[in-house]
Amino acid sequence: MIQTVIDERQIAEVLHFTTHRGLVGTLASHALKSRFRLPQDAYLAHILHVNAAVRPEASAYFDKSENWLDYVNLSISEINRRYLDVSEKWHAGGQVWWAILSFDPVILTHDNVVFATTNNSYDQCVRAGGADGLSALFAPTIHRKKPSWRAFRGLRAAELTTCEQAEALYPGEVSTDFLRRIYVREEEYQDQVAGWLEEFGLQDVEIVWSPQKFIGKRN
Asked: I need a surface site. Which of 9, 19, 140, 182 has the fewest CB within 10 A?
């Protein structure tokens, strides 16, 4: 069972980083929506501010067995720092700041969640559901791209995927019912986030000032 893997690995959170504008949209709609669904929401259409201009999943050559743009890209235990770096460069000078949404790991047990061993856009990515799919993210070696770019487990903590870019792909949207905390990198944004949580009627969500959380665990 997926829950068994979660318990054995002591996985405590599932993460997604976003701009502050994306955070407002998520809180307002009470759901973290897939890129595919964002324009369908009248409110989000006005504040749409995605993490990067282009997703490889949208290209003609990419695997079309599923509409991968209709999945929310999530990380387990730590963020994908490589992708955060790319996103920050794209938004350079755009007057945005970043937040990390932390969800209860129970969402990994929900129907039709797909586990990707590395970045879903990489040619060596292996995708699968269920407990075997989740367990595969912790294999001794993960192949990323041909011919030989790989990630090795080494001494990574039990809760960390072997490849820092591994993903949990959640279909459609993740309800904020499972949102447990929001990380901010600068202390000054704590009050702002608290105000948004109150405005949109979200209770029992912890706000954590943690620059360290934005560093990730690179490999």
From this structure: 140
Supply 48's token pair: 């749409």
Are 121 and 28 contacting, i.e. CB atoms less than 8 angstroms apart?
A: no
Per residue in 4-45, pLDDT (tens digit) is: 999 999 999 999 999 998 999 999 999 999 988 876 665 555
- pTM (predicted TM-score): 0.88
